[in-house]
């Protein structure tokens, strides 16, 4: 029966090429926008290179200090000492890395200035993140203990600084009048992943890292790698227990605080919290807004397609009347037209998949997002299938219900 419905839908598509073009154009355009949007959200929040273990990582990005009346606040990254004392010593995680956010520096090749994004990290940074080493290896605990002036650079920086050189390992790079020995070259990661993105990486014991700051605030952030995602609650509870033992009130850089909050959350919650601020249901709010936008993007074209579908169905009034006269149940007729509309929607979805792939490729190649790696992966594909189904139902149910109310006599006269 389902196969017959699909055959009928195909013949209906061929009957009126203009209506078919308008229908497929509206569907494919809408779904293309939704697929690209879904791919971008997946690129932004999903588990991708080099943060290949993001799905089992917790992120600590800032400390929020407030006075006792909670009318004034001071917030920002933490000191290396604070994260070492309160996070590195946690017993539940598999591994913890401490690093800075991206800083800015300059390097020179002759008279040409190269603007650099720099990052100071510990040795565990290379375990928690899954960088692909094209040359050499990462610095280790021994390099850090020795205070070695070593660095890991990206393949893009290698091209700029060591142009024409086969291997950069063992060569020196000068940054802010300090010379470092390159011991590794990694494949560049996107700028949209601030915990891992940089052009050059230094051990935290090298100059200008500020790791010796004694207070709680500083320039460092932290990634906690759990053994399993199920350990998140235990890690958060252990970490919060330590935060609760911070002596209050206190003074930090002249600010008298009576409340200290430090978030320890998965990346998506951390990212959304930074944008929206404090809220009890940040995920629900964010994804509620995204869902609303998607429904609006689907709803408006669906309303236009409803009118086209009604016209298309009314042209088949005589067919409907004959089937009703021979005892076809209303539910069967409604189901047939819904299946036909979903089939047409999936054809539009296939066209949209091609368009979205082309657009995503152009975005990746354009350089709008440095080292972007937007993809149509399994998550994006499954969301797209769901969107196609919802879109097909939205634009097909009302015409099908309209058809079901046709009087047999009136239908046969049409």
UniProtKB/TrEMBL annotation:
<feature type="transmembrane region" description="Helical">
    <location>
        <begin position="21"/>
        <end position="41"/>
    </location>
</feature>
<keyword id="KW-1133">Transmembrane helix</keyword>
<keyword id="KW-0472">Membrane</keyword>
<dbReference type="GO" id="GO:0005886">
    <property type="term" value="C:plasma membrane"/>
</dbReference>
<feature type="transmembrane region" description="Helical">
    <location>
        <begin position="333"/>
        <end position="360"/>
    </location>
</feature>
<keyword id="KW-0812">Transmembrane</keyword>
<protein>
    <submittedName>
        <fullName>ABC transporter permease</fullName>
    </submittedName>
</protein>
<dbReference type="GO" id="GO:0022857">
    <property type="term" value="F:transmembrane transporter activity"/>
</dbReference>
<dbReference type="Pfam" id="PF12704">
    <property type="entry name" value="MacB_PCD"/>
</dbReference>
<keyword id="KW-1003">Cell membrane</keyword>
<dbReference type="InterPro" id="IPR050250">
    <property type="entry name" value="Macrolide_Exporter_MacB"/>
</dbReference>
<dbReference type="InterPro" id="IPR003838">
    <property type="entry name" value="ABC3_permease_C"/>
</dbReference>
<dbReference type="Pfam" id="PF02687">
    <property type="entry name" value="FtsX"/>
</dbReference>
<feature type="transmembrane region" description="Helical">
    <location>
        <begin position="380"/>
        <end position="401"/>
    </location>
</feature>
<feature type="transmembrane region" description="Helical">
    <location>
        <begin position="284"/>
        <end position="306"/>
    </location>
</feature>
<dbReference type="InterPro" id="IPR025857">
    <property type="entry name" value="MacB_PCD"/>
</dbReference>
<feature type="domain" description="ABC3 transporter permease C-terminal">
    <location>
        <begin position="292"/>
        <end position="408"/>
    </location>
</feature>
<feature type="domain" description="MacB-like periplasmic core">
    <location>
        <begin position="20"/>
        <end position="240"/>
    </location>
</feature>
